[in-house]
Every structure is written in C-alpha cells, then in structure tokens.
C-alpha cells in the first residue's frame, strides 16, 4: 500500500470517528459511538435469548410481577418505544441486575433481599436501564474496536453487521457468555451518569428518588456485614460511600424537576 492510499484510509477513518461523536441522552456528555444503535440492539436481543436459555427463571409470581410492574413504569418514562421491553426475574442468590440493548432487563432474586421497597427497586432498574439508554455498552464496544483495529475501527464497526469480530467485542463489553450478566468495569463517569439518569427515570415514573440513597446505604452495610469483597452489582463500581454522597448531592434537584407523585400499584 503506497503512502497516498494510507493517508486516504487514515483520513476516511478519522472522518468516520468524528462523525461518530454523539451526545449522551439526558446529560449531553460527549460520546464516541462507532457502532450503530440498530446493530447494538440486534446484538442485545440475541444475547438476551441466550440468557433466557441458560438461566433459571423465578417461579415466584408475586416478585416477578413486581419487577415487571416497576420496570414497565420506568420503560414508559424512558420514552423509548422502539425497544422491545421485557423484564425477567432470575432465580439466583446473586446481588445483581442488568439491561441489554433493546430493552431486555434481568434482575436476580438475590438483590430483592436488599431492594425491599419499590423505590429501591426502581433505583436498581432505573440505573441499569440508564446504561442501555445512554449506550454505555456501545461506548465500551467503540473503545474496544479502536484498540483492536486502530484507525480502521469505524469502517469495521459501521459495515460489519453481526460479524464474529463485532459479536465477540459485544460479548466482552457486556460480559455475556461464560458469566452471563456480569459486566466488565464501567468507568466512574458511566456509573455516576447511570445513577443520575436512573434517578431521573425513577422520579419520572413516580418513584421517590431517595430510594437510590437508601439502596446504596443497604448495599454498603451488606458488604461490611459480609466482611468480603462487594457483591457483583458493586464490584465494578465506585465506593458506596462516594456514590451515596454523589446521589445525595443530586437528589434534591432531580426530585424538584422530575418527581411527580403518582398513585402507584
């Protein structure tokens, strides 16, 4: 390949990357997204099918309906009708939850021992739904594409569809596969953003945003009581105390702007 062609390819790649710069929903933070939302959603729906096949769904109809009821309210508040929203309760004593692109939300029964109120459950589900809405996984995929393919990342991501390379990067970014639903570390920026957007969604759905603070206080106490490393839901996140402080600082403004008390069933 001659020098002129190399320069042309580099210029095309740089233009594609610049074109892929986007603004995060709700916060307007700058993002680099090299993969389309349609591709990300398709991969998420495929991954969700694998989760349903591999995991045991809870037979506790009351708790499963509770998860669906809270989830539907938050989904309605998100105003994302193109997502195929579904809510699943996995029978496993694991403190975890996650949402895949396309609107498939999975909650583990173990986390319900801590989320005893619907406001707290709304904080969990709002946080996980926020990750999908703000496309944090897409950001991680874009970073991985850049690292793996360098300057050709944009053309690969935009033209590869569901190629093995893109599918593998999706699995890595979302932790699907051998450890279903165990996300790789988010950045602190993404986690703080998901907390903020999650509280906004919960408040818009009629749930008290202070549920996020009581939830993380319980999480912090849970970890201290166990005297061990944090549960999965906390292991890749900022410290609970820092998170509680950040939530407390934002909670009043979010409540004043978004909270509309509703008759919740």
Structural overview:
The radius of gyration is 19 Å and the shape is globular. Strand 1 (about 20-25) and strand 2 form a beta hairpin. By secondary structure, the chain is mainly alpha-helical. It has one domain (about 15-260). Helix 5 packs across helix 9 and helix 9 runs parallel beside helix 12 (about 240-260). The protein has helices at about 5-20, 35-55, 60-80, 110, 120-135, 135-150, 155-160, 165-175, 190-205, 210-225, 230-235, 240-260, and strands spanning about 20-25, 30, 85-90, 95-100, 105-110. The chain starts with a helix and ends in a 7-residue tail after the last helix. A three-stranded mixed sheet has the order 3-5-4. It has twelve helices and five strands. Residues about 5-20 and about 175-185 have low confidence and may be disordered.
